[in-house]
Amino acid sequence: MTKENILELIQTKNAKIAIGVILFLGFTFLILKKDPKPVEISIVKQDVYRQILSVQGKTKVKELYTAYSPVNGVMRRVELHAGDKVSRGMTLLTIDWDIVKTVKASANGQILKVYRESAGPVIMGERILDYGDVSKIDVSAFVLSEDMPDLDKKDKVLITGFGEHTLEGQVSIIEPSAITKISSLGVEEQRVPIFIEFNPPPGIGDGYELECKIILFEKPNAIVIPTSALFREDGKWAVFTVEKKKAKLRFVEVEHQSEGISMIKSGLSVGESVILYPGDTVENGTKVMPE
């Protein structure tokens, strides 16, 4: 077919209609074509799963000593300051009474806090100062009584909040009686005092606030995913996997959840990709593009 024949064919009415239809369909396809939705994904992996109970704790000198005024009298000025070292038998307080009364240290340690240093009248039992050995420190914490069935002595504890390193300890004491405490929301709670023993690093002192993660149990070689991949569908747990660049709805069975990690009993395999925070814009079959 010559060039002239092709030009004549294009100029016919039917050819013009056919070209118009093709262009219309092409533009319509481009307009209706949806770009893949960018999504954040995570790879299903096999790892150690840890069931963690998080509580706030405070360091506490194991053996705290307090010096009180033993009589009503006039106390001489206390020349000791927080941080000063004391040794057993050292004079801490001197009080003029009918005779001079002194209070001596019962153990070696450091002055932790001086409540009063000025000279002047004192009454019997007035608290003057605290001291103790800061190299022997535990962490004191309070656990909700409803969480106690899962807690045991010697449970491993990961401690953070003092420098960049994670310290290790273990539950050493679980007191048999709960006490009533008020939560930050003003709600009464029954909490059980526990103590965590650890190797205190240099520089730490009494009353330091720490974050304690008590490991209630561990399971090696577990199938784990971020909990942010899970959502509820028809009353069941589900995720979106990524298959052939599309979101695929998958029902799963969750065995445990803790600290943003879920242990999956069935429904996923190691190496698969799951979509995090799928939201309402991702549906089964949605084209997706991992970010």
Automatic annotation (TrEMBL):
List the InterPro entries hit by this protein, alphabetically: Single_hybrid_motif, YknX-like_C
For this UniProt record, give its keywords in alphabetical order, as a comma-separated list. Membrane, Transmembrane, Transmembrane helix
Which Pfam families has this protein been placed in? YknX_C
Q: Which GO terms describe its cellular component?
A: efflux pump complex
Give the source's domain of life in one word: Bacteria
In alphabetical order, the GO MF annotations are: efflux transmembrane transporter activity
Record-annotated YknX-like C-terminal permuted SH3-like domain positions:
222-288
TM helices/strands, residue ranges: 15-32
- Write down what this protein is called: Efflux RND transporter periplasmic adaptor subunit
- Which organism does this sequence originate in? Leptospira bandrabouensis
> What lineage is this protein's organism placed in?
Bacteria, Pseudomonadati, Spirochaetota, Spirochaetia, Leptospirales
